[in-house]
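User: Can you predict the 3D structure for this chain?
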Amino acid sequence: MIQRPQNVHAQYHAHVYFDAKSTEQARALCQTAATLFGVTMGRVHQKLVGPHPHWSCQLAFDSTQFDALIPWLDTNRNGLNILVHAQTGNNIEDHTTHASWLGEPATLDLSRFKA
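Assistant: Here is the predicted structure, written as structure tokens:
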């Protein structure tokens, strides 16, 4: 079963995944989220970055923004898959135990977090 996002941490990231055909859709989604909810939008990466197996754009937000942002992202993602994870300072746990999905989950490359 896909783990759905829950507001149980102080800080979060949402990574909106996209490909060449959906770049502008993802950019518009992230820009609109930043405008509507005051979240911080990162770069639109048209390459693999970090543990992410797809191109992505990061949204950084906190628990006070979570309850409005997450349902909006789910309603407006239009087929895009989104990883939502806590920012606790433990990268492995943040991207596994504290990770959830809007859409279909992807397999992350966690090897970059191992010493």
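The chain is about 30% helix and 25% strand. The longest strand covers residues 11-18.
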